[in-house]
Write the structure tokens for this entry.
Amino acid sequence: MLRYNQAKFTASYGLLSQLPKSGPLEFAFAGRSNVGKSSLINKLFGRKGLARVSSVPGKTATINFYTTDGVNFVDLPGYGYAKVGKKEKQRWAELIEGYFNDERNVGLVIQLIDMRHPPTQLDLDMVNYLIAREFPFLVILTKSDKLNKSEREKRLASIRSELPYGEEITIIPFSTETGEGVETLRQIIDELAETEEMQ
């Protein structure tokens, strides 16, 4: 089992050319701006201020690396924030795509989608991209605590038909408030990290 509470922030890269070559196993977090990536990372590691949480969407404009027990966790820039200039959007897109095109040792992509709403077109583009490139991924539905029981069930049923191959995707409701989904995600990451170690 990884020691999540020992995780450290290691580096931040704003340009593709700065990215170091891939080495250890990496778990990458992807999702649109303001979907709750930083909050999820803090919850996963049991550390309040490790990833900077902002109420301003589009704050993570760099690729941020965290590490524990020789495993890297990679926070990719949030996509789809409308108020960012065209040049900045292009830089983000290059960073995200560049990361995935870089022959990296990606164990799993953790794709975040806001549970309260259907996936955006950019979410669907991302999922289709991951499928086309054959990256292993799962979907985390953030902000699950914001829905009541019947709304939750409705969204869970709908998401399967809204996502391509929705029936085959691992989908985990997640809440940074209640801690729902944290242990499930840790378990999946631990199993993959263990498998990598044994190879």
In short: The domain at 4-198 is CATH 3.40.50.300 (Rossmann fold).
